[in-house]
Design goal:
The chain contains no helices and eight strands. With 116 residues, the protein is mostly beta strands. It catalyses: peroxynitrite = nitrate.
Length: 116
């Protein structure tokens, strides 16, 4: 079990904009994963996928979406996440999103560098 928290901030003001909290679960004895995430705008998702040890990569895709009754459109329909360890100190996360108005397309790309 891995606890997950992500907060994005406005690039100019630093004001928090989007928050996600969840858990990454591993199906014991397999490379299968489940990522359960709740978003601050009234959306919860379950994403499932696998870990490829050779590529040092996790790929996840939405299997379930739930939202509050008053969530604003356009509504998110699904996500795809790709998480790659590019080097021992560099992690890349790419998030693809499909909404009522847009086909599945790259929504966010982040590269994290470990500070020593």
């Amino acid at each position: 079990m891995f606890n997950y928290i992500s907060t994005s901030r406005h690039p100019e003001t630093g004001t928090p904009m989007h928050q996600e909290r969840g858990f990454l679960r591993i199906n014991p004895g397999t490379n299968q994963l489940a990522f359960i995430v709740s978003h601050n705008f009234g959306l919860s998702t379950i994403e499932e996928g696998h870990f490829d040890a050779d590529k040092k990569e996790i790929k996840l895709q939405t299997v379930n979406v739930a939202r509050t009754s008053f969530a604003k459109p356009p509504h998110v329909q699904s996500f795809k996440r790709e998480i790659r360890l590019l080097s021992p100190d560099t992690l890349e996360i790419v998030l693809f999103m499909k909404t009522d108005d847009t086909p599945m397309s790259e929504h966010l790309k982040a590269v994290y560098n470990k500070k020593v």
